[in-house]
Amino acid sequence: MRVWNFSAGPSMLPLEVLEQAAAEMTDWHGTGMSIMEMSHRSKDYMGVRDEAEADLRALLSVPDDFAVLFVQGGAQGQNGLLPLNLIQRNGSGKADYVLSGSWSVKSCEEAQRYGDIRVAGTSGQAWQDQGKEWAPWTWFPEPSQWDVRPDAAYLHVCTNETIGGVEFNDIPKLDVPVVADVSSNILSCPIDFSRVSVAYAGAQKNAGMSGIALMMIRKDLLGHAMDLCPSAFNYANIEKQQSMFNTPPTYSIYMAGLMFKWLERQGGVAAMQARNAAKSEALYGFLDASEFYTNTVHPAYRSRMNVPFLLRDQSLDALFLEQATAAGLTSLKGHKSVGGMRASIYNAMPLEGVQALIDFMTEFERRNG
């Protein structure tokens, strides 16, 4: 039995993608071997990698002056690799960070090991708006309030905070290169590459399985790595060797390629954007109409990917999770740092799954309200 898997990541994958991977597991395209057994430098595997890159470029309309890299270490690994590669780009050793939740804070803290890091804006305090006080990390600092140093090598933002359920994609056009962590909402909406100079994401939420980070980086930002940066993590080396400087996570790249094909069959990123809007609007609409459940994120910054919610009577949390799991609705427990519940509704989650959750929540409220 397949369950509705609301995990924040690794997340659910489309059944047809899993079935294709299963069918090709022991014999990929008549080669008599699995992708996992294949030399990463073989003609067959290089074709898999090249096609994955081409499809990702097409899905996100990545400009020709951007390199597409499949990088090891996941998105969190890039927290250190980004400053190692970029912070000396202009010789300043400076980088600015916008803090909007747990992941941007982690990124900022890691970068402090490598240079002069400053907070350009933060939602880490309460904010009065619309006659209400919004708690820290439940909103996104507006760009008009950012204090970005003109000599910063880059500005880092996280467009979707998985734990807090905060999303912001309206990045302004700045003179300083913008580095965007798009791990939780990549391929769910377009990326404006005229405003974003680097976009990176772990693959395990919207683009396949864990093991790689996808990176789109303007080519003129390559070649500025610090001397202490390991050769295998120097983005210029990775780009020059087509993500094959050393043996990559070959199966993770293959799975990402299958996901890209699936997204193309769904109608591409524009179709997914509309589908994700319908899913999130249905769930937020239900939460807003209920006095039993609540969502505490500012409405202007609610994530379409990660929907945290609380039961007003938190003594019912354990019972809610137990009965939800029994009903085939799994991985709804909120992150340990914030508690409550969280429904992650990435691209692979259909509206049917979201409706099944709403139906269960309606019935649970009827029995326990």
UniProtKB/TrEMBL annotation:
It is an enzyme of class 2 (transferase). Its main location: cytoplasm. It is found in: Cytoplasm. Pathway: Amino-acid biosynthesis; L-serine biosynthesis; L-serine from 3-phospho-D-glycerate: step 2/3; Cofactor biosynthesis; pyridoxine 5'-phosphate biosynthesis; pyridoxine 5'-phosphate from D-erythrose 4-phosphate: step 3/5. Pfam families: Aminotran_5. GO terms for molecular function: O-phospho-L-serine:2-oxoglutarate aminotransferase activity; pyridoxal phosphate binding. Binds 1 pyridoxal phosphate per subunit. L-glutamate binds at R41. The modification N6-(pyridoxal phosphate)lysine is found at K205. Pyridoxal 5'-phosphate binds at W103, T162, D181, Q204, N246, T247. Belongs to the class-V pyridoxal-phosphate-dependent aminotransferase family. SerC subfamily. It comes from Alcaligenes faecalis. The keyword Amino-acid biosynthesis applies. The gene is serC. Catalyzes the reversible conversion of 3-phosphohydroxypyruvate to phosphoserine and of 3-hydroxy-2-oxo-4-phosphonooxybutanoate to phosphohydroxythreonine. One of its GO terms (cellular component) is cytoplasm. It comes from the Bacteria. GO terms for biological process: L-serine biosynthetic process; pyridoxine biosynthetic process. The lineage of its organism: Bacteria, Pseudomonadati, Pseudomonadota, Betaproteobacteria, Burkholderiales. SUPFAM superfamilies: PLP-dependent transferases. Its EC number is 2.6.1.52. It catalyses: O-phospho-L-serine + 2-oxoglutarate = 3-phosphooxypyruvate + L-glutamate; 4-(phosphooxy)-L-threonine + 2-oxoglutarate = (R)-3-hydroxy-2-oxo-4-phosphooxybutanoate + L-glutamate. Its cofactor is pyridoxal 5'-phosphate. This is Phosphoserine aminotransferase. HAMAP family: SerC_aminotrans_5. Residues 3-357 form the Aminotransferase class V domain. Keywords: Amino-acid biosynthesis, Aminotransferase, Cytoplasm, Pyridoxal phosphate, Pyridoxine biosynthesis, Serine biosynthesis, Transferase.
